[in-house]
Write a structure and sequence with these properties.
five-stranded antiparallel β-sheet
Length: 75
């Protein structure tokens, strides 16, 4: 993989960070993307909510990290 990882901190909610992997920024939202929570892959995981977003061909395209406070507010 070449290129830079793009990291976004949302100004409207500083408790959320998202990293887009190089070459994957052109993925169309809703266009074959699917997401999974880290806790689904690692039962017993404790820590901030981590969401992995996969594009076509099951390529990891984005990682979102939510603070524990932010994650609990969404459930």
């Amino acid at each position: 993989m070449t290129g830079k990882i793009e990291l976004e901190l949302y100004s409207s909610d500083a408790r959320v960070a998202r990293a887009s992997l190089p070459g994957r920024n052109g993925a169309v939202r809703g266009g074959g993307e699917r997401g999974v929570r880290l806790e689904e892959l690692l039962p017993g995981y404790e820590g901030p909510e981590v969401r992995l977003k996969f594009g076509e061909n099951d390529e990891l395209i984005r990682i979102a990290i939510l603070s524990e406070a932010s994650a609990s507010e969404r459930t």
